[in-house]
Design brief:
heterodimer; A: mainly alpha; ABC transporter involved in vitamin B12 uptake, BtuC; 81% helix; globular; B: mainly alpha; 14 helices; 74% helix; ABC_transptr_permease_BtuC (chain B); cell membrane (chain B); ABC_BtuC-like (chain B); transmembrane transporter activity (chain B); membrane (chain B)
């Protein structure tokens, strides 16, 4: 019963959240709850955004080893942030209202994503490995360009972009929480409305068209949702390469279904559990200095290798 | 064309001697002993280090491509560089007072282990999908890289790791780069057995039927790649894409007879890295942009061009 598994996942997430909020807390509860609550909210938003965007991206590209971050989406977002600071200066960026700045970065990302990944994805079915390789090389290119421009920026202004170049789950930008929660909710609601069409799109382009789905429009809309969710998660927590892959393959193996009405919530729940529980364990139990993103990257990369090796056996 | 290439390389090398924070002209060399000292201590070693690194990285790339029988990999995208960084990190951690040579040995050993494991993985991939190999290599490298970051974070050595991961020549002075001559010698050694690597590139069965000791040649190749990569990582840091882009261009222009093309591959690597180093020195004068960053941009663009401009059917 997939529905029952979904309920178990939800229960596990609630448990993880409770542990995260209470474990090892000393002193003033008002402070502790508010402080950890903001962190928890950020983790959940980031987790849901990454999980849903990955599942959507994998469905429209028609394979399980592509994710937005493997294709260099979030590297592109960081590049745009750097370019913005380079173009109008750190002071100019600081003067922009948060909403306006986010809108600019988001629309740039969307434009580039549709141009770049729209054309790549239309070929992806024929030559998947070349597409993935291209994406990874784009990621390296965007990283190098970002590093390059960062060297050209004044050191004082550099501090503004530096924060966003590294993944961090323990020091998320809590002042962006409100707008991020709103945008994330919009993105997820839009993805939910597409859940049945996604099931059809997953059958492949020709099948989907013959079943009456406006394929081109649907793919464009879904790419838009993906770009929105990636901007939210990257703005909040920075780039993470393999986390989405880890979550989506866990969701697929836990649910064993192709229905997005079940896959999407399952992936979001699993993502939340991994992040919240992982953060609790690394921070409170193991008292490790290493950020969670590093261990997540390690595990996600291993999952990727296993997927590829297993896939090649077939 | 070959004469033009040599002339360009020489011109770049001379330019590299006279580009830097302190303005030194050729005439000042004769008059000013201070300028001659600067040349001997900083500029000349730096130029030599760049040339040695570029040449030997390109050669290591060729060998790796022949061993894995795939055009799209090189030591830094196949986990060898990251493994070397892991080795020197562990050596720093467990024997902090060990001499540099011992740390070098540790780096070479882990680089060797990392490459052997990579080749073992590659052998299990289907031959029909050549682009899967670099993909697996990149992920394999980033898994090892994440391991390195994890250990370094715990031990507060992240800054060291940053130095090994990002290639940069600004720290090169007389007395600090001489290990690179060893990697130059390893690259030269590769030239003497170049035709064997050409045969290894044809596959195991062909090699054995042509009378080649396949296992020994592969082992020798892996050893050369590991030594070159470990030395480069320890002395100047990783420079991505050199071993990937240069051999591919050389093989398009000159074909696959390694004995004939290897010197040109080495020269091409040296020239391209030197060009990127000079760009990095000039573009934000008097500050510097690390050569790894400049090459990351240049190399990624060249790689994309290779990926899409190649004739279909050639992997």
């Amino acid at each position: 019963m997939p529905e029952r598994r979904l309920a178990w996942l939800a229960l596990a997430l609630v448990g993880a959240c409770a542990l995260f909020m209470t474990l090892g807390a000393r002193g003033n509860w008002d402070f502790v709850l508010a402080f950890r609550g903001a962190k928890l909210a950020a983790l959940l938003i980031v987790g849901a955004a990454i999980a849903v965007s990955t599942i959507l991206f994998q469905t429209i590209s028609g394979n399980r080893i592509l994710t937005p971050s493997i294709m260099g989406f979030d590297a592109l977002f960081v590049l745009f942030q750097t370019l913005l600071v380079f173009a109008i200066g750190g002071f100019g960026v600081a003067q922009l209202s948060q909403g306006l700045r986010f809108a600019m970065e988001f629309s740039l990302l969307l434009g580039a994503a549709v141009l770049l990944f729209g054309t790549l994805l239309s070929r992806a079915r024929h030559d998947m490995h070349r597409t993935v390789l291209t994406g990874i090389i784009f990621g390296v290119l965007f990283h190098s360009l970002t590093a390059f421009i960062q060297r050209l920026i004044d050191p004082n202004e550099f501090a503004i972009v530096q924060v966003n170049s590294f993944a961090r789950f323990n020091a998320v930008e809590t002042d962006l929480l409100g707008i991020s929660a709103l945008l994330c909710a919009i993105g997820i609601a839009a993805a939910w409305r597409y859940r049945h069409r996604l099931d059809v799109i997953a059958l492949g382009r020709d099948q989907a068209i013959s079943l009456g789905v406006d394929h081109r429009r649907a793919v464009f809309a879904i790419l838009m949702i993906v770009a929105l969710l990636v901007s939210v998660s990257t703005a909040l927590a920075g780039p993470v390469t393999f986390f989405g892959l880890l979550v989506s393959s866990l969701a697929h193996s836990a649910m064993k279904t192709h229905r997005h009405a079940l896959l999407l919530p399952a992936a979001a729940l699993i993502s939340g559990i991994v992040l919240v529980a992982g953060q609790t364990v690394t921070e409170r139990i193991l008292a490790l200095a290493t950020p969670l993103s590093v261990s997540v990257e390690f595990l996600g990369g291993l999952v990727f290798l296993l997927l590829v090796l297993k896939g090649s056996q077939r | 064309m070959k004469i033009a290439a040599v002339a360009a390389l020489l011109a770049l090398a001379v330019a590299s001697l006279f580009v830097g924070v302190i303005d030194v002209g050729p005439a000042a060399l004769l008059r000013d002993p201070e300028a001659a000292r600067l040349m001997a201590i900083s500029r000349l070693p730096r130029t030599l280090a760049v040339l040695l690194t570029g040449a030997s990285m390109a050669v290591a790339g060729v060998i790796m491509q022949m061993l894995a029988r795939n055009r799209f990999i090189e030591p830094t995208t196949a986990g060898t560089g990251q493994s070397a960084a892991l080795g020197i990190l562990l050596a720093t951690l467990f024997m902090p007072s060990a001499p540099l040579a011992l740390k070098m040995l540790a780096a070479s050993l882990t680089a060797l282990a990392g490459s052997v494991l990579f080749l073992a993985i590659v052998r299990r991939l289907p031959v029909t999908q050549p682009l899967l190999v670099p993909l697996v290599g990149l992920v394999y490298g980033s898994v090892i890289g994440a391991g390195v970051t994890f250990v370094a974070y715990q031990a507060d050595l992240l800054q060291y790791v940053g130095v090994w991961m990002n290639g940069e020549f600004s720290g090169v002075l007389l007395g600090r780069y001489e290990l690179l001559w060893v990697s130059g010698i390893a690259a030269l050694a590769a030239w003497f057995v170049a035709d064997r690597f050409s045969i290894v590139g044809l596959g195991r069965d062909v090699s054995v039927s042509l009378g080649l000791n396949y296992a020994r040649t592969v082992a020798a190749g892996l050893l050369m790649v590991s030594v070159i990569t470990a030395l480069t990582v320890v002395t100047v840091g990783m420079i991505p894409f050199v071993g990937l882009v240069v051999p591919n261009i050389a093989s398009r222009l000159l074909g696959d007879n390694l004995r004939a093309s290897l010197p040109w591959t080495a020269a091409g690597g040296a020239g391209l890295v030197l060009l990127c180093d000079i760009i990095g020195r000039v573009i934000r004068h008097p500050y510097e942009i690390p050569v790894g960053t400049v090459f990351g941009v240049v190399g990624a663009v060249l790689f994309l061009w290779l990926l899409y401009a190649r004739k279909p059917g050639h992997a």
